[in-house]
Write a structure and sequence with these properties.
Length: about 350
């Protein structure tokens, strides 16, 4: 199969709507090889190194660098030489767990056909977990990522009272929160080592002034939720006694660094690596609240949760950047090219 190089990623040309773009990216219909290219649901184009695979979503069928490899109604994919992106517009529905699971399975099958590694984002359903586990057992290079909300919250949050019946809008995200059985399956996958990274898909729309634009019209609710500030504490609390510091560091630091081409500079404590250090206090007890958080948003999905453990000191490049959850004012760090 001939593969030419490309200099940019065009994820959503050809009249694809923002809703379709968000659904396709966030529902795990994304396959990416290491080092990964940049994906952003609201960014039309992004630069990519010349030696990276680039995927272009199109309306002309499934192609790899203009070489057709298959014809599938609804599925539209172009690729350069190391990354695969796939979106099935006809069958995918982020509100339907079967559609989401089917997207996971189809992305895995495309990666198998292309003999390419696969990175699945925001894994949120049992069907997808089973597909990932099966593919890994078969020896395929599959990387799975999930988020704290899919490991701790379920669909009953959409029934949350408050804000004149609109409180459930806080949890409008893609994929949406799933059934308790899906949460259990994901947690089991984390404990079994089937999940490679835990991210957040942090998207901090305010409930008041932004998400409430959708009162009376659900489709106008901005999609996404905040989570980046509380990710370590939520995970340490949710898996207390089940995952220790080594496992949590693998899921939230080492794993992402390896997948996205930043290892060995990032994701480890060793000579030659950046001096990014977190001093964790496992004895800290505190309550997560929007009133005391640093992230600029008027709510948190984890409001009222008693957290066990906290980052006491955070160093970036050897410079103290935060103490006990509060920034010091220093702004260290440099861009990491991949």
């Amino acid at each position: 199969m001939g593969r030419s190089q490309s200099q940019k990623i065009e994820l959503f040309p050809g009249g694809v709507t923002r809703r379709q773009a968000i659904a396709g990216l966030s529902a795990a219909a994304v396959a990416a090889c290491v080092p990964a290219a940049a994906f952003a649901g609201t960014t039309p184009t992004a630069p990519a190194p010349a030696n990276e695979t680039v995927i272009v979503l199109s309306d002309d069928g499934i192609t790899v660098n203009d070489d057709p490899i298959a014809e599938e109604p609804g599925g539209k994919v172009y690729a350069a030489h190391d990354v695969v992106y796939y979106e099935d517009r006809d069958s995918y529905d982020s509100g339907n767990p079967y559609g989401e699971g089917e997207a996971d399975e189809r992305a895995i099958n495309l990666a198998k056909a292309a003999n390419a590694p696969l990175y699945i984002v925001h894994l949120a359903n049992k069907q997808g977990v089973e597909a990932v586990t099966k593919a890994k057992d078969e020896g395929y290079e599959i990387y799975a990522e999930t988020c704290p909300q899919y490991l701790t919250l379920d669909e009953t949050r959409y029934l949350e009272e408050g804000d004149d019946g609109f409180a459930g809008a806080k949890y409008v995200m893609s994929p949406p929160l799933r059934k308790p059985s899906d949460v259990r399956a994901l947690r089991a996958a984390v404990l079994a080592g089937e999940v490679d990274s835990i991210a957040t898909d942090h998207c901090s729309f305010n409930l008041h002034g932004q998400k409430d634009r959708g009162r009376g019209d659900f489709t106008r609710i901005p999609n996404g939720g905040p989570g980046i500030e509380h990710r370590p504490a939520v995970m340490a609390t949710a898996f207390e006694g089940r995952l220790g510091p080594v496992e949590l560091a693998r899921l939230m630091s080492e794993g992402p660094a390896r997948v996205f081409g930043m290892w060995p500079r990032k994701g480890r404590l060793a000579p030659g690596a950046d001096a990014d250090v977190c001093v964790w206090d496992p004895r800290a007890r505190w309550t997560i609240s929007a009133a005391t958080q640093q992230q600029a948003v008027d709510y948190t999905p984890y409001e009222g949760m008693e957290a066990h453990g906290r980052a006491h000191l955070v160093y970036v490049g050897g410079v103290l950047a935060a103490r006990d959850g509060a920034p010091t004012g220093a702004r260290p760090g440099t861009y990491v090219s991949r």
